[in-house]
Amino acid sequence: MNIEERVRVAYETHHEGYNCAQAVFAAYLDLLDISKEDAMKTAYGFGGGLGMTREICGTLTGGAMVLGQKFGKEAADVKQKQFVNKKVASLCKEFEESHGSVICGELLGLRETDKKS
Predict the structure, then answer these.
(1) How many angstroms separate the Cα of 41 from the Cα of each of 2, 91, 105, 115?
(2) Least enclosed by CB within 10 Å: which of 55, 65, 86, 103?
(3) Which residues, 6 or more positions from 110, have their beta carbon under 8 angstroms from its beta carbon?
(4) Is residue 71 a contact partner of residue 80, using CB atoms and an 8 Å limit?
């Protein structure tokens, strides 16, 4: 799938009533070894900025779950953990540069940002 198709899947999934984390996770299921049912259950509490707290954006937590599923290992592996964490940090940085925040409440205009223009 190309990025436009993934955006469409995420959009449609979100409009079916799933949260942002679930929608992003669903858009990448073709690359992962996890069922849609298990992915949707895993991402269930990550919407609305982690349990509707309006903290870290569900889109990012969904992306982090995708990266963990794609690159993580079942056994503890310090080097692989560092590798995945760098990918997640890069995703967060790119997202913040593009959208101005990683905080759900700020992105939705429900909370003022403390960032200086």
Answers:
(1) 25, 23, 23, 34
(2) 86
(3) 54, 104
(4) yes
Q: Give the model confidence (pLDDT) of 43-72 as tens digits.
A: 999 999 999 999 999 999 999 999 999 999
Q: Which two tokens stand for residue 9?
A: 């899947």
Q: Measured between alpha carbons, how far is 73 from 91 in angstroms, rounded to an integer?
A: 19
CA atoms of 46 and 19, how far apart (whole Å)? 8
Model confidence over 81-91: pLDDT tens digits? 999 999 999 99
Amino acid at 71: F
Q: What is the pTM of this model?
A: 0.88
Would you call 109 exposed, middle or buried from its count of C-beta atoms within 10 A (0-12, 13-18, 19+)?
Answer: exposed
